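Hi support team,

I submitted a single chain yesterday and got back a structure, but I'm not sure I'm reading the token output correctly. Could someone confirm the output below corresponds to the sequence I sent? I've pasted both exactly as they appear in my results page.

Thanks,
R.
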Amino acid sequence: MNHYLFRFSNYQWMSEKMHVNPQDGRPRMHPATVVLRQILELNEVMEFAMRRELALKETDFQAMQHLIKHRTMSPGELAQLLHLTPAATTTVIDRLESKGHISRTPHPTDRRRQLISPSPKSVKETMARLMPMILGVDAKVRTYTPQEQEAIVDFLTSVAGSMIESSAALGSPSTGTTTRTPEKMEG
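Hi R., thanks for writing in. Yes, this is the structure output for that exact sequence:
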């Protein structure tokens, strides 16, 4: 998904709403905004490294992300999420199957259809690479007080909401992602 994102750190234009440094007249951003930009760029770097390590093309990697998230999908559903034609999606599925990343199974009620699922081995390899980072982030956020954690969740929820609104304004189809605030923060 993030290949659709602007790599706006490379652009000089800024909104009129941006604060301006009175000393040199250049826009300045809040440190949180700068770090968020770094995170978006580092996500691209991580995805590139994972694609290279798993020997996947970008579209194949995106397909695997959807399959890992949804567990099982029809080729048509996958085509919609990838914004590809059925023929192009079949090519992606064939490549992933030949590398052992997915399996095809008959649909339980419609014998004309197939379902696509990620292989347990591929899910395990992907999670083995991601979980140390995810657990590290989770451990760090838990070091903050419950009120600080609520502020972090509020900020990140607002960022996600802004990104969803901007994507919609650009005509991007729904990401299927919802942002929600946990009812109760765990300590």
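A quick pointer for reading it: Helices lie at 31-54, 58-70, 75-82, 86-98, 120-141, 146-169. Let us know if anything else looks off.

Best,
Support desk
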